[in-house]
Amino acid sequence: MGPSTTFSTTSNPTASYGDLATGDAVTVILTAPDGAPSTGIPVTSVADSGAAPTVTCVVDGLATSPGSLGGVNIQVVFGGHRGHHGHGHGRNAQATPVRRNVNLHRAFATTEVTPQSLAVTFDPSTVFVDPGNPSATPAQILPGDRLTITWTLPPGTPPGTTPAAEVVDHGPPGPIRYVAEGTASAPGSLTGVGLTVSHLFPNAAPQFAGGSVLPVVFDANTTFVDVGSPGATLDHIATGDTLIVVWTAPVHTAAVNLPAAARVIDLGQTPAQQPDA
Predict the structure, then answer these.
(1) What is the model's pLDDT at position 182?
(2) Residues in contact with 59: Cβ distance below 8 Å, sequence separation at least 6, in sequence order
(3) CA-to-CA distance for 18 and 5, rounded, in angstroms?
(4) Which residues contact 124 (CB under 8 A, 6 or more apart)?
(5) Domain tally for the chain?
(6) 224 vs 133, 166, 219, 227, CA distance in Å?
(7) Are 46 and 5 contacting, i.e. CB atoms less than 8 angstroms apart?
(8) How many CB atoms lie within 10 A of CB 50?
(9) Which pTM does this prediction carry?
């Protein structure tokens, strides 16, 4: 720039260079003979358009730590469809999907394939919304709560590097169905049976492994269906019977932590398993 260079802002056509702030968008005009190199030529004018408009970035995640007035840690799961929290029986029932945003990819170091962790900070201007408790504060966020985090950021700023503008706590996910199929590893009783897992359904509980024996617990609310004997009870399960077991439990419940089975269907034994007549 030279002594004849003019400088202006959108609100002040006679502004000075001192009005230029870091991050402002500027338009620079050079006047030079056709074909002449642009280097070394004094700038004719500089128009300062001011700071670029902010963008809104929204992320859905599960709290992985207790909340505090200063922030919370969340886990973000890429993929799925918003609206499947707490219900449904397919793969997406366990997903905590991300809302797409032009700024979002900058928050994560790896590709959008596996769950990612993000530290979220709050400050006194962060708005906290708990639909079930209007007087709640971020300190009442519990691990496993579904959170919607909103930032208002300059373009290119990674979410998580500035305090969140708003946090909505949707509470823990509701229960979903888990299903497994296998064979009874021992005779059944009214309190439970061992299940040798042979088939993993898409909505199998985490840490299921084919071929492993899973202790299945029954209680007074377990519904039992014996295809070959409508009046049978759970203690009629025989070793080797093919069983389909259904549980209702919170999202991400590990197989070893499943509650009593909600439903057990006894398909009996295959012809190859049945003793010769």
Answers:
(1) 92
(2) 74, 76, 98, 99, 101, 104, 107, 118, 148, 149, 159
(3) 14
(4) none
(5) 3
(6) 39, 47, 11, 10
(7) yes
(8) 15
(9) 0.55
Q: CA end-to-end span of the chain, whole Å?
A: 102
Q: Is 106 helix (H, G, I), strand (E, B) or coil?
A: helix
Residues in the chain: 277
Cβ proximity of 226 and 253 under 8 Å: no
Q: Which residues contact 169 (CB under 8 A, 6 or more apart)?
A: 67, 128, 129, 130, 131, 136, 140, 141, 145, 146, 147
Which residue type, as a one-letter code, is found at position 124? P
Domain of residue 45, residue span? 6-51
**Residue at 277 is within a domain:** no
Per-residue pLDDT tens for 44-65? 777 877 777 777 888 888 899 9
* Statement to judge: residues 83 and 189 lie in one domain: no
What's the token pair of residue 36?
């002449």
Higher pLDDT, 226 or 276: 226
Burial letters 159-190, b for 16+ CB under 10 A, else e: bbeeebbbbbbbbbbebbbbbbbbbbeeebee
Residue 271 falls within a domain, yes or no? Answer: no
Of 169, 121, 119, the residue nearest 145 (C-alpha): 169
Q: What are phi and psi of 257, to 5 degrees?
A: -110, 10
Q: State whether 86 and 117 are in the same domain.
A: yes
CB atoms within 10 A of CB 203: 17
pLDDT at 128 over 70: yes
- Asked if 73 and 158 sit in the same domain, the reply is yes
pLDDT score recorded for residue 269 = 86
